[in-house]
Automatic annotation (TrEMBL):
Originating species: Gimesia benthica
Entry-linked SUPFAM superfamilies: Arabinanase/levansucrase/invertase
Signal peptide: 1-20
Taxonomic placement: Bacteria, Pseudomonadati, Planctomycetota, Planctomycetia, Planctomycetales
InterPro entries: Glyco_hydro_beta-prop_sf
Record carries keyword Signal: yes
Name used for this protein in its record: Glycosyl hydrolase family 32 N-terminal domain-containing protein
Keywords of the record: Signal
Length: 472
C-alpha cells in the first residue's frame, strides 16, 4: 500500500504538490484590485499605495441636513436620498420625540451625478419647509433619521420590491420609556418600493431588533451580495465602549442571522459609520468608508478606507486618513465629515463619492489604491492564481519615463515560454483598460485554468487592477 501511495504521488503533476503548501487564488474573469494583499505574493522595492480623492467644485448639489445620505445609480439616472427636518435648526436637546417626529427623507435626481434637480413628487401635501415637494418619506418615527435605500439586484426579486431600505434607531437604556410605550420598539424597519420614490413598510415590526444596535444612530446599510448569495447588513454597534461595526445576513430581508462584531477598530478608535458597499466594478470586494470620530478633538472626523471580501474581517491595509477634514474650520467642526453610501462612475475614467454638505470627490476608476514603483524600478509577484480568459487587461499609469512589463510564471517561478519578461512589449501611458501583449500576441488561453504567477516589473508606475477577459 505504501508503494502504491508513493507511485500515486509521483504520478501527480508537480504543481499539485505545491498546492498542498500554498493556496491558489481562483479569480476566473473577475476584476481584482490592489486594495488588499489578496493577490500580493512579493513586493520588491514596491508598495501598496492609498490614493487621495480630489475635491471637485460644487455645482449646486443637494445639501443633506444631518450626517447620512445615499446616492444610487438606476438605469437612467442617479438618485440622492438625504435627511431633512420640518423645523429648520431643530435639535434633539429641544425634545427627543419631537425632533425625530419632524425628520423626513428628501430626494434629488441627476442624469450625470453632478447636476441635481429637486422634483415635485406630490406624494405628501405641500409643506412650507420643503416647497420643492421632494419628500419621499414622512411621518415614520425614528426611521427617517437614517433611512438608507438600495437597489435590490437579487435574481427574481418582484418589481414591487426592486428597491429596499432600512431605517430606525434603538431607545437608549432607561430613557424615553413613555415614548417607547406609545410608539413601539425601536430597531431597523424594512421598506420596499418599485421606483425608489413610493415607499411602504415591508412589515410593521422591525426586522433587526433594537437590542442588537446600541443605538443604530448611524447609517445602517444593506445590499444583495452576488458573492455571498444573501442580503448583507453592516450596522452601528458599541463594542467594548467604542463605536464599532457589526454584520448580519438574510435570505429574505426579514429574518436575519445572529450578528457578528467585526472588530475593525484600531486601539482607542471610534468608527461612527460602516458605510460598506460592494464596489460596482468588482462586487465581490466590499468598500467601506467609515467615519473616524475623535471625541477628544472637538468631535472632529475624517474618512477612512477599508475593504472586505464576503464574511471575512475588514482589511486595514491602510490606516491613514482617506479624506482629511481639509483647510478651514468647516471640516473640523463637530462631526463634519461623513461619506454617503454610493460610489459611482461619473465620467469615462472617473468615479465619484459624496460627503455631507454636498461635497463630491473623484478618483480614477479602480483608483483607490495601487501597487506603486519608483523610477529606479520594483517588482510585484502575485500569489499562485488560476484564471479563465484569453487576454490579460490591466488598469495602470506610468510617468513619461516609466513602464511596466509582465511575465507569466509556472508554479515554481520559472518563466513560461512565450510569456517571459523579454517577450513582453513595454507598457507605458495611462489606461483604464490596456491589454498586455507579448511577441506572439495577447492570447493567454493556453494557460487558462492552470496555476500561474504574474510578475510585474515596474518603473515609476502604478498598477490599480487586473482582469482576464474572454475572447471578443
Amino acid at each position: 500500500m505504501k508503494i502504491l501511495c508513493l507511485c500515486a504521488v509521483l504520478l501527480l503533476p508537480a504543481w499539485s504538490v505545491v498546492f498542498a503548501e500554498e493556496p491558489v487564488r481562483e479569480i476566473g474573469s473577475r476584476r481584482e484590485l490592489f486594495v488588499d494583499r489578496f493577490l500580493v505574493g512579493e513586493l520588491i522595492d514596491t508598495e501598496l499605495k492609498l490614493h487621495t480623492p480630489q475635491l471637485m467644485p460644487a455645482v449646486d448639489p443637494p445639501r443633506p441636513h444631518g450626517h447620512y445620505a445615499t446616492v444610487l445609480k438606476a438605469d437612467d439616472q442617479f438618485q440622492f436620498y438625504y435627511r431633512g427636518d420640518t423645523q429648520p435648526g431643530n435639535h434633539w436637546k429641544k425634545g427627543w420625540e419631537q425632533y425625530h417626529d419632524g425628520e423626513v427623507t428628501l430626494y434629488a435626481e441627476s442624469k450625470d451625478g453632478i447636476h441635481w434637480t429637486l422634483p415635485d413628487l406630490g406624494i405628501y401635501p405641500d409643506h412650507p419647509t420643503f416647497p420643492a415637494g421632494n419628500v419621499v418619506l414622512m411621518n415614520e418615527f425614528l426611521v427617517n433619521h437614517n433611512f438608507t435605500p438600495f437597489i435590490d439586484t437579487r435574481p427574481g426579486v418582484p418589481e414591487t420590491e426592486k428597491y429596499k431600505a432600512l431605517g430606525g434607531l434603538a431607545y437608549q437604556p432607561n430613557q424615553h420609556l413613555e415614548v417607547r410605550k406609545r410608539r413601539g420598539p425601536g430597531g431597523l424597519k424594512a421598506f420596499v418600493s418599485p421606483d425608489g420614490i413610493h415607499w411602504k413598510p415591508l412589515q410593521a415590526d422591525p426586522v433587526i431588533p433594537e437590542a442588537w444596535g446600541k443605538y443604530f444612530d448611524s447609517q445602517n446599510y444593506a445590499f444583495w451580495s452576488e458573492s455571498e448569495h444573501a442580503y448583507v447588513c453592516y450596522f452601528r454597534r458599541f463594542i467594548k465602549g467604542y463605536r464599532g461595526i457589526a454584520r448580519t445576513t438574510s435570505q429574505d430581508f426579514i429574518h436575519w442571522t445572529p450578528f457578528q462584531e467585526m472588530h475593525a477598530n484600531l486601539p482607542n478608535e471610534h468608527l461612527y459609520t460602516a458605510c460598506t458597499q460592494p464596489y460596482f466594478r468588482a462586487p465581490h470586494i466590499y468598500f467601506a468608508l467609515p467615519t473616524r470620530f475623535m471625541a477628544k478633538r472637538g468631535s472632529a472626523t475624517d474618512i477612512l478606507f477599508m475593504s472586505a471580501r464576503g464574511a471575512a474581517p475588514f482589511d486595514r491595509e491602510f490606516t491613514q486618513s482617506f479624506i482629511r477634514p481639509g483647510i478651514g474650520q468647516d471640516g473640523w467642526a463637530n462631526r463634519a465629515n461623513y461619506a454617503a453610501i454610493g460610489i459611482h462612475q461619473t465620467g469615462p475614467a472617473e468615479m465619484s463619492l459624496f460627503l455631507t454638505g454636498g461635497r463630491r470627490y473623484t478618483l480614477r476608476l479602480d483608483g483607490v489604491a495601487s501597487v506603486n514603483a519608483p523610477l529606479e524600478g520594483g517588482t510585484l509577484i502575485t500569489k499562485l492564481l488560476t484564471f479563465t480568459g484569453n487576454e490579460l487587461e490591466i488598469n495602470y499609469s506610468t510617468s513619461a519615463a516609466g513602464q511596466i512589463q509582465v511575465e507569466i510564471q509556472d508554479v515554481e517561478g520559472n518563466p513560461l515560454p512565450g510569456f517571459t519578461l523579454a517577450d513582453c512589449e513595454p507598457i507605458y501611458g495611462d489606461h483604464i483598460a490596456r491589454t498586455v501583449r507579448w511577441k506572439d500576441g495577447t492570447d493567454v488561453s493556453s494557460l487558462s485554468g492552470k496555476p500561474v504567477r504574474l510578475r510585474f516589473v515596474m518603473h515609476d508606475a502604478d498598477l490599480y487592477a487586473l482582469k482576464f477577459n474572454p475572447a471578443r
